[in-house]
Write a structure and sequence with these properties.
Two copies of one chain form a homodimer. Chain A is of the alpha+beta class. Chain A contains six helices and seven strands. In chain A, helix 4 packs antiparallel against helix 5.
Chain lengths: 191, 191
């Protein structure tokens, strides 16, 4: 399989990649903060006008990596466009790994790899709707995030990003979650 | 493939599992702290009397999960036995995921899954040799940990645990490490 670091052979319109099963790369942000000493996560709800997954829960900011843009550069751009997060704050986001998966729908096959970032936000920070890709933002406690993941209200790959956050930060316990090992492996499929 | 949560069909001596290719589970601890504001990691060097990987670098504490013991229970036990970490301190370790891999040597096939924990240690804490499985402990800066991973001085699966730590804590950058995505996927092979 070609790698992210391989020199590009040619470029194409992103919407066409699914016809060829080409792997796409993107960035997703877990934006988290504290309220009354409890950890909370900022989530967006996708606009009803989005062609894919309208009205579903999304991470605070996310977007595909276009030709010529770097990984962190894409994240900072999406943070500003989607959630009005100032670049100086977005640049403090920490890269924490990737999630990888493949899905299929009527449009084709979608192998994807998302570079994941965590950003701890000041308590007083509030995201605002930017370019209209999100309709609203919510601050949820982590138990509510777990419920949202289980409910199917999330855009599926965004649920994986939030699940990865819960695991990496110790909010799922290997002695209490029977499928802990399978959940971690399921977040990192290489094919 | 059977899962960690499946009810056991029977128990066997751990040394025999490689003959049957049975997946083994264990726990590994990333013990880290700060020196003059810089993050550092405690690593052990395995005793020369160990039958496997004698004299190689290891995580601060690690061990296989035996019949009847829980994941966290195993970690706390190994912390005390190998590095004299008091149970009350070891119990503060945070579960942060798993690494999964399969290797083969002259003894057989070893599919393994390690439950990974991070423990932030007080600056004044120093591990001590316990049951003699380790001969010495070192406190290394994270650049030195990177060099040790690249040098081959590590027991291989312990290098994966340390690499996973560096990635999760943002000490590798997706824009600077060309194989970032492949490194993350390589830490989580399900077969």
């Amino acid at each position: 399989m070609p790698r992210f670091c391989d020199p590009p052979l040619f470029s194409m319109e992103r919407a066409a990649t699914a016809l060829l099963g080409v792997r796409c790369y993107g960035t997703h942000l877990n934006g988290y903060t504290w309220r009354r000493g409890r950890p909370c996560m900022w989530l967006g709800r996708r606009a009803l006008t989005k062609p894919t997954y309208p009205g579903q829960l999304d991470n605070l900011a996310a977007g595909g990596i276009a030709v010529g843009l770097g990984v962190t550069e894409t994240l900072v751009k999406e943070c500003q466009e989607e959630a009005c997060i100032p670049p100086a704050l977005a640049a403090q986001a920490r890269p924490v790994g990737t999630i990888s998966y493949t899905y299929e729908d009527h449009r084709g096959i979608f192998p994807e790899c998302q570079f994941v970032f965590d950003l701890e936000l000041p308590e007083e920070f509030e995201p605002h709707v930017g370019d209209g890709e999100m309709q609203e933002f919510y601050l949820l406690g982590l138990d509510e995030v777990k419920d949202a993941i289980a409910s199917g209200d999330f855009k599926p790959n965004c649920a994986l990003v939030a699940l990865d956050f819960l695991i990496r930060h110790g909010h799922l316990q290997p002695d209490h979650e029977p499928h802990y090992a399978e959940l971690v492996e399921g977040l990192h499929r290489s094919r």
